[in-house]
User: Fold these one by one.
Assistant:
Number 1:
Amino acid sequence: MKTRRRPYSAQRPADLGGGVWSVPVPIPGNPLGYTLVYAVDSPAGPVLVDAGWNHRDAWAALRDGLAALGIDVRDVRGVVVTHHHPDHAGLAGRVREESDGWIAMHEADATLVRLIRGMAGGSARDFQADMMRRAGAGSEADAVSVADRPDPPALPDLELQDGDLIDLPGRRLRTVWTPGHTPGHVCLYLEDTGRLFTGDHVLPGITPHIGIYPYDRNDVDPLGDFLASLDRVAELVDVEALPAHEWTFPDVAARASEIRAHHEEKLTVLRELLAGLRTAPPTIWDVAERMTWNRPWADLGPMQRGMAAGEAAAHLRTLEVRGLAGRVSGAPGDPVRFTTLSH
């Protein structure tokens, strides 16, 4: 079954067959519109894949959407969160309160959730502002750091590792660790029907955000991890994708190949940009300003500029790992700068 993206107002809960249902849950004020929350049936009760944004309208949509499919939210056995972002994990805690079920998340994202929950408002803002200054944001650092952010998600009861089977009696729902979009992003392979819940890892019409936080880290390579994760899911043949946004589609491998090509092209363009600025090595913020986004830089708000800088940093880091870019030493406290390297 394949559906096309429509506005949230045109979305309806759907029976996808094989004991799988989808419920569109709105994301207030976000151009994505909605998250597709999936319910997988079992003799011991349904398990949700993701839960949606923590908002009263989203909660009503999830609760009522499940009810329209004959599912009482109080009967939910558990929620598997594909990753910790608020449009996926936000309502997991509310579902747990109503159902007394469990929340499961990959251990790497669980670590991040504990870190986020341990940061008070002031310390979080200071962290953001310092990160922006080290990236070269200058006077924009404070504006980005005070942008509104949602409450952190609930802590999970279960921490997943790659290959784990989800507690879903009578079904085989296997964890496939696909880091990149977040360190602990997972896809979930429903082996008894040949379907893959792809979260944000493989989407049919857009590509997920891949960023580094803090921007100047040199001990991780999220984009490299993401590309390797794309190769991993591409090895699954004849698998239908059930993504968290947009629409379902039949060929995970083909779409994974397209997304890989998109990022390789972006890396090529970025290296050319660095070559043109070789006499004045740019900061991460300088690079972000010059890259192509879905809107002009001048039209991006503070949070969108911060995310753009994170994505610029991730692509710069992959070039660095490949030996195609390097960091330029400056005075202590100066923003990090990059230049192209011969290869």
Number 2:
Amino acid sequence: MSDIERTEFKLPESAPARGPESSVEPHAQRGEHDVEKSLRPKSIHEFIGQPKVRRQLDLVLSGARQRSVTPDHILLSGPPGLGKTTMAMIVAQELGTSLRMTSGPALERAGDLAAMLSNIMEGDVLFIDEIHRIARPAEEMLYMAMEDFRIDVIVGKGPGATSIPLDIPPFTLVGATTRAGMLTGPLRDRFGFTAQMEFYDVEDLTQVVTRAAGILGVDIDSDAAVEIASRSRGTPRIANRLLRRVRDYADVHSDGRVTVRAAQGALEVFDVDELGLDRLDRAVLDALIRGHGGGPVGVSTLAIAVGEEPSTVEEVCEPYLVRAGLVSRTGRGRVATSAAWRHLGLEPPEGAIGS
């Protein structure tokens, strides 16, 4: 029996915003949780940011609807937290079909994929998160399913094994990946539309925070929304998370209204500085600058200095530090830029990168 998770996606109903006299009964707490789940946009026009992706995807879906055909398979790539899963949900919503969700690591055998594909209805959207981690046997079965809407099921073992062809209804595969370079060429080429999700600017993130505050019933000042957005590392998921923590701070330490002062106080409590760096980010910079004179330093050495795994430093901290212009990757190792020295309140040495 396959242990793959199969989910038919249904959008949550919008719940009313909390008023100032909201009940604190258990059923009220469950309602608030439902409201937080509704932070995901429900349509492509409600989705904030990613204007190129939205325009291109809207064209793909609109053309398919006009021709009454199943849209091409869609690949969404980009860093975590930018809305790839939300976009897959929107695709199903726009097409008026069911969404079935799984992940690449869950598809360990070809039989796992066959079990899922055998239950697909015509026009359904199959969403595979982290598709670059799908097992090779399942990936090879996916080739035929994507191109010919057919799979071969092997019955038996050894010389007596028999291949039984199984036709499946036309469907749309939406794959999401944080590492597009790890996709094999044959799999990548079978997607009819590929979208690269990009980090958000502060203006778009401010809209994300303002919209989420309205859904959560949070009274927020416009400049407080900008403050939260500017510390969210260009990622909507982080912006929504910081908003909820700032809301907690405002509820406990003031009248619940989120002002700039409340936002700054909350983010200081949760170790998020003005650039969006957290404790681990600053620990890496401190080890790089104060511990090794600004580098160059290997990632393994930095990981030992901060007490983390090298993969954590390389995959969690380093991408944002590089994008923020605080760390430079060289052939000899990681080097702190002049901006990193100044961020720690130190004067950069002569010859520092960016000085």
